[in-house]
Here is the input.
Amino acid sequence: MLVAIEGIDGAGKGTLTRNLMALAARDGVDAASLSFPRYDETAFAKLIAQYLNGRFGDIDDVPVRFAALLYAGDRFESRPKLEALTAAHRLVILDRYVASNMAYNAAKLPSKLRQDLLDWLDETEFGIFGLPRPDLTCLVCTQPELADQLVARKDARSYTEATRDLHEADRGFMAEVADVYDMLAGQDGRWLRVDPLDGDGNLRTPDDIAAEVWAGIQARLE
Here is the structure.
């Protein structure tokens, strides 16, 4: 089973992935995880690091399909590793996958042009590049304002020395990304939406969020 964890920057995808791996180990489910982009691991991811550090210009300076191909190329370069993991394990959890490419790049375009890009990326990554489709995509529905606060708490990342990369620094852009994610989740029944806030508007604990997602994964594993 292939599960993708999605959400805007600061949503807690890495923490959720680690907690799900711990739950899988607890319950005796043979699992592995992989995070995209694979910084320092693929040639395309090294270019992505340059892009996110502004080496190719601001967001509006970089052609959308060029940026999208960098991320798609990182996964294409990683396909043998991904296929090996899915063959060897009952469960593989991905911290970001194709939906990230769709959401972040479609968000750069006017609404009327987004579906064309989404269709092109679907054909490119799943069709031409032959990547496996996820059995379940979990969307952590974090509001941009909260995510921005959580980004500021992140530890240093290997690909940048800045507190916020090119995407994280643009709060308006993050709101557009969240809108595209919401649209994608509404188009496919293989998505699970998770609210990081409880009924009183307080931030839920990472363990609580992971327990909800794990229950959704277990239902599909069984």
The chain has a mean pLDDT of 90.
